[in-house]
Amino acid sequence: MSDTNVAPLFAHKVKRSLASAGYRQTLIAIPAGEKSKTLEQVGAICDQMITARLDRQSFVIGLGGGMIGDISGFLAAIYHRGIPHVQIPTTLLAMVDSSIGGKTGVDTRDGKNLIGAFHQPSLVIDDLDVLKTLPHRQFIQGFAEMIKHAIIADAKMFQKLQSWDQSSSLASGALALQSLIKRNIQIKSRIVSKDERDRTGQRALLNFGHTVGHAIERAGNYDKFLHGEAVSLGIVAACAISVKRAGLSSDQRAAIVNLLGRFGLPTRLPPKFPRKPILDALNFDKKFDGGKIRFIVTPRIGVAYVAENVTPADIHEAIAQL
Ligand SMILES: NC(=O)c1ccc[n+]([C@@H]2O[C@H](COP(=O)([O-])OP(=O)(O)OC[C@H]3O[C@@H](n4cnc5c(N)ncnc54)[C@H](O)[C@@H]3O)[C@@H](O)[C@H]2O)c1
Ligand SMILES: [Zn+2]
Fold first, then answer.
1. Residue 52 pLDDT greater than 90, yes or no
2. Does the CB atom of residue 29 touch ligand 1 within 6 A?
3. Alpha-carbon distance 32 to 36, whole Å?
4. Cβ distance 265 to 141 under 8 Å?
5. 37 Cβ inside 6 Å of ligand 1
6. Residue 27 C-alpha to ligand 1 middle, in angstroms?
7. At what angle do helices 155-162 and 136-153 cross, to 10 degrees?
């Protein structure tokens, strides 16, 4: 399973490789973009899978970014009540984040990822070569999730990112990038393995920056900001709230905002971007648990926890200041 941008680039290689190993295969390519991550699309793909006579011996390979990873994983989770899922992430974001942890699903009118299933991939294959065709903006958004990982779990990696040479090309910097990707996979999988089903609050730490980030993504109709860009803005908001409610120092907050900016990630909303739709979108976020806001804060770089003392007014204020 792939999308209309990625399939023409890499699907033939995967097909050739599968064929040479004796596998029968069907390529299902859906339109690229977040708008394809819907239940309607899932229904249409199920029909194609049935027509192709996939059965319980079959498995699904998601070849693409996080959108394909999420929807193909969801299909693998429900098709014949669950068949194996292989992820071949083709974006940096998918390598360091969405391909790890087994969260699969689709968006609905009311919000992102509201429908889904936990379904761990049987195998994840990261090949850095695929990143060569990734547009720069898409590449950069992956760093938002890496900066998030550094803030919540790894002060050393934060320093490493501060001295990251962005001018180095994918070819010359491949080794450094490889070790950075590995480190991020370790961080995410370590957190996920403590709380695979997102029940105890440990996994929730990965949502740092995402309460506001998701609202911004939605307010931008999922096309104004990329996921990582919205998360970058959400991190800035979460840092403002952390200064107020968790004792984050202003210096560390400035260092975080600086680092996001150094990668060219947005740290301010466009001046004319209306705040109201962001506040409206917040109501739908699943992090508002029974009216109580469980908001992820950081008291210092490398540490995060779920706070219960964050008020809606704090969030409103942070968004107003963005
Ligand atoms: N499951 C999780 O835990 C998790 C975590 C984070 C994000 N996500 C999800 O991931 C999605 C965002 O992922 P994404 O940013 O990878 O988006 P994406 O899958 O939409 O890919 C971004 C764009 O890049 C194109 N593309 C992908 N690989 C390419 C390549 N190698 N060369 C050229 N073009 C390429 C795609 O066609 C698409 O247009 C969102 O749906 C988000 O909800 C899921
Ligand atoms: Zn994210």
1. yes
2. no
3. 7
4. yes
5. yes
6. 18
7. 140
